[in-house]
Amino acid sequence: METLAKFTLPAVLLALILVFGFWLSYAGKPYHGILFNLHKLLALGAVVLAGIQFSKTLHAPDGLLVALLAVSALCVIALFVSGALMSAGKLDYVLMLSIHRVAPVVLGIALVWSGFLLVRLR
Ligand code: HEM
Could you tell me if the CB of 85 is within 6 A of ligand 1? Predict the structure, then answer.
């Protein structure tokens, strides 16, 4: 539990990213500048903080945990790329939005699963 407590701030940031993401979507196009930047910067902050905490926590990670973190990293890349392409109006919007909707679900599953493994490995 002590280990999971280190991830409280990234988890709170993730919740805020979702709130601002749905708000941004609801506000429609052209995207609201402040909502868009808050959504993007919170995402950047959460990724940096989570990365620092994971690097401090993982001393001898097992294979499954590494695989789950690799999936999480791929989801984050997909979110940043699809988010940037949607805002730039490049490529197929519906495809980018679908990626941007599926990736948080996969990311959530991978992170919760990683949390269980981290608690068990401690
Ligand atoms: C951890 C990272 C991120 C998560 C979990 C996330 C999640 C979300 C969610 C749940 C939505 C609402 C989608 C819907 O209407 O169903 C959304 C919308 C949006 N996000 Fe993100 N996002 C992340 C990062 C980013 C980044 C880095 C950018 C920009 C570079 C971005 C750009 C957008 C845009 C433009 C929308 C509005 C889409 C639309 O409805 O037209 N997101 N995001």
Answer: no
- CB-based contact 13:46 (threshold 8 Å): yes
**Separation of 21 CA from ligand 1 center, angstroms?**
5
For ligand 1, mutation pick of 40, 79, 95, 107 (most atoms within 8 Å of CB): 79
- pTM: predicted TM-score of the whole model, two decimal places: 0.94
Taking only the tens place, the pLDDT of each residue in 30-68 is 999 999 999 999 999 999 999 999 888 887 778 999 999
- Assess whether the C-beta atom of 101 lies below 6 angstroms from ligand 1: yes
C-beta contacts of 78-84 below 8 A and 24+ residues apart = 78/103, 79/43, 79/103, 79/104, 79/107, 80/43, 83/39, 83/40, 83/43
> Among 25, 93, 101, which residue has the most ligand 1 atoms within 8 Å of its CB, making it the best to mutate?
25
